[in-house]
Structures are given as C-alpha cells and as structure tokens.
Amino acid sequence: MQSVDAVRADFPFLNQIMNGHPLIYLDNAATTQKPRPVLRALRQYYTQENVNVHRGGYARAAATTAEYEEVRTRVAHLINAPSAREVVFTKGTTEALNWAAFGGAVSLKPGDEILVTVMEHHSNLVPWQVLAARSGAVLRFVEVTADGILDWADFQRKLSARTRVVAVSATSNVLGTVNPVTAIARIAHKAGALVVVDAAQAVGHMPVDVQKWGADLVAFSGHKMLGPTGIGVLWGQRAVLERMHPLEYGGEMISAVTRDETTFKEVPWCFEGGTQNIAGVIGLGKAIQYLERQGIGAIQAREQQLAARLATGLRALPQVTVYGPVSGKQRNGVVAFNVGSLHAHDVATALDAQGTAVRAGHHCAQVLMKHLGVSGTVRASVAFYNTTAEVDALVAQVERTEAFFKKYGMG
Ligand SMILES: Cc1ncc(COP(=O)(O)O)c(C=O)c1O
C-alpha cells in the first residue's frame, strides 16, 4: 500500500474545512470517498464515452460495451467468482437482496423458516420479513452474544430441516463483527437452506472469496468500496441465478418478442433490463483497480488497526460504552459507541462542531438497537485513508464532549 499521505492526495473530498476545522471523515460505513481515477472515469465517460451499451453498432458503442463487460470480469476476479457471467449489476446491496428474496431463488410455503441474525441491516431483514408474510413462512432470528458475536449455539439450535433460507451479513455495519460465513454456509447447506450473504461492509474491506464462502447469493454496493452510488452487484452461483426470474421486464433483457410471448437473454443479462448505470459500472471498475493496487489484505489490516486503536481509546474513557467484539481480528473498521446517557445525536452534533463526521442513530438496524437496549449509537467507521492522528483526535473530541456535558450535569 502507498503511504497514507499519498493515498489521501487521491481523495479531494478529504481536503476540506468543516465548521472551521479540517474535516475528519469517519462515516465510511455509510459511504466511502472516491479517488481521482474514479472521478476522472466518470467525467471521461460523460464527456467522451457516453453511448448506450449492447445496442449501437458503431465503434464507440462497441468500445463502451466492451469496457462495461470488462468490469464484470473485474468484479468476478475481486470476489474470486468462477465466471463473470455470475455477476449481475444492480443499483446496490438493497436491490440485490430484494432480488435474492423475490426473484424465485427459493419458493416458500407456510411453515418454512427463514433464518436471519439480530445484527442484520434492514436491507437484509425487511425483504425476508415481507417474503415470510407473503408466503406464510416464519422469520427467525439468531441471537448475538454479550460481546457482539453471532451466538453459534443459537444458530445451530434454530437451523433445521424447516430452514429454507439463511441470510447473514459478512460484517455488521454496527458491531463491526466479522461473521464466519464459510462455516455458516457449510452447515446451512447441510440443512438444505439457500445461503444469502450481505457483503456490503465486506467487499473492498477484506479479501472476499465467494467460492471459499460457498454461499448461493452475495450482495454488495459500489459506493461503499470507493465506487459511485447507484451501482452494486448480486453475485450468484450459476445454477441459482438460472432458476431465478427477472424482476424487471422490458428493453435489452429479451432475446425475442412476438405479440404472444417473449424469450429472454441468458444470465446475467436477463436481469439487466433497460438502460443501466453505465457510468456507475465504469466507475466501479476503476474503484476495484484502485483497491487492488493498494492491496485488499493491506486495506483490511490498516482498517482493523485503526478501528482497534479507536475502540481502545474510547473504551478507556469512563463514560463510554463501545459495542461489538473486543478482538481486532473479529471486527472490521466500524466502532459504535455511546457516551453515558447522552443522546447519540447530541454527541454527533458536538463532534460535527469539532470538524468530525460520524453517524448517529439506529444505522438501519432497529432490531439490533432493541437487543442492545438503546435507541441509537454514535458510529465512527474508518477507511484505509484515515490517519492515526484522526482517530486520536476523535477520542480527544469525545473526551471533551463528555466533560462539556458533565459540566452542565448531563451525561
Ligand atoms: C450491512 C449493510 N447492508 C446493506 C446496506 C444497504 O446498502 P445500500 O444502501 O448501498 O443498498 C448497508 C448500507 O449501509 C449495510 O451497511
């Protein structure tokens, strides 16, 4: 990996003043910043390459189509998919997970069970809840232990021959927990369940090998891994994608249309109806190139190191509760915390006034909030372009915030 200074020079967003202070951006789990090669590619696409793909017969159309399809190969390489034809472009993780739930990968009847975990983001919970309500299936939750990891005994207890789907996040967007996807998939498959992985916080932040995971469907978003918004991926085992049906019918996903019927393109193109987010795909390709140049293993090590430093610093403050596993190896770059009884939004506002951007609230994980017994948390999330000085500054700011509210008898 390049030096952090060299990396930061590639991210113009980071070089700005917020509320009179140099901005410290620690909301990377919400969305990451974009490096210059991605920004350049978006500009270049709209200035020189802006044609539709898979349609035009002229040279520019062929070149842009080739570039678009090359990104599919790049994505496959990043996640070690056996074939680029298993890579479907979507709007993002949310759309990909909705397709996983409603695309016919599994057909459920009353009494069947869907197993999710208490730590799921709403995107990997609400679609399953709705599917359960429509089909008469039962949605069950695997609990999380007091130290924020998946309760393995509970998982084994709840997994049964009735379980038709196991839907789990590779890493939690609140607790930072890294889940044992390979082990989960192995025993879920033995029970005959479809395994769906929400990898929104994993891809680009840790080495992901979908073959090693052995899952059936994996979803992730470009914007959480240096790419543009509005582009994501549903990867699926070929046989699983082939038994699914498209959720959007129309132009470009067809093979032939008569007055009476339509035949469809093969997987994955049958899922990409209408004009796609071509700029998004091209930008995603540049993001992957950038990540691979830095080295995904090195990115993971750096983010884990920064998060461990942050969690340790925050835990040392008397009023602060940090959620999630203590061990740096079992977590990624997300650190959620609360300061005494202060409202998370008040803490985030105080940090904002000191130049630091963090997120506060339920983080689209209300079931987890209920489990933790809080209405929300503050969440700081690092990326490999953050510095140890920034992380230390956040700890100092939280300490000042704690002292400030204490002076007025609060917290
Ligand atoms: C774990 C997890 N799953 C799903 C999502 C949804 O991603 P998107 O909003 O890009 O669809 C997020 C976004 O925060 C997330 O962190």
Stretches where pLDDT is under 50 for at least 5 consecutive residues are none
- The CATH architecture of the largest domain would be 3-Layer(aba) Sandwich
The CATH class assignment of the largest domain is: Alpha Beta
What is the count of structural domains? Answer: 2
Q: In which range does the helix fraction lie? A: 25-40%
Look up the CATH topology of the largest domain. Answer: Aspartate Aminotransferase, domain 2
Spatial order of the strands forming the largest sheet: 4-10-9-8-7-5-6
The value of Rg in angstroms is: 22 Å
Number of helices: 14
Our measurement of the CA-to-CA distance between the termini, rounded to an integer number of angstroms, reads 41 Å
What's the β-strand tally? 17
Bound molecules: pyridoxal-5'-phosphate
Largest sheet: 7 strands, mixed
Query: What fraction strand?
Result: 15-25%
Kindly name the structural category. alpha/beta
The outline comes out as globular
Name the CATH superfamily assignment of the largest domain: Type I PLP-dependent aspartate aminotransferase-like (Major domain)
Q: Mean pLDDT score, rounded?
A: 97
Question: What does this 3D model show about the protein?
Answer:
By secondary structure, this protein is α/β, with parallel strands linked by helices. It has 2 domains: 4-30 and 295-407, Aspartate Aminotransferase, domain 1 (Alpha-Beta Complex); 39-292, Aspartate Aminotransferase, domain 2 (3-Layer(aba) Sandwich). It contains 14 helices and 17 strands. The chain has helices at 4-9, 36-49, 59-78, 93-102, 126-135, 152-158, 181-190, 210-213, 238-243, 278-294, 296-315, 344-353, 366-372, 388-407, and strands spanning 17-18, 21-22, 24-25, 87-90, 113-117, 138-142, 163-169, 194-198, 217-221, 232-236, 254-257, 262-264, 320-322, 334-339, 356-357, 359-361, 377-381. The strands form 5 sheets. A 7-stranded mixed sheet has the order 4-10-9-8-7-5-6, with helices on both faces. Strands 13-14-17-16 form a 4-stranded antiparallel sheet. The protein has a two-stranded antiparallel sheet with strand order 1-2. The longest helix has 20 residues, at 59-78. The radius of gyration is 22 Å and the shape is globular.
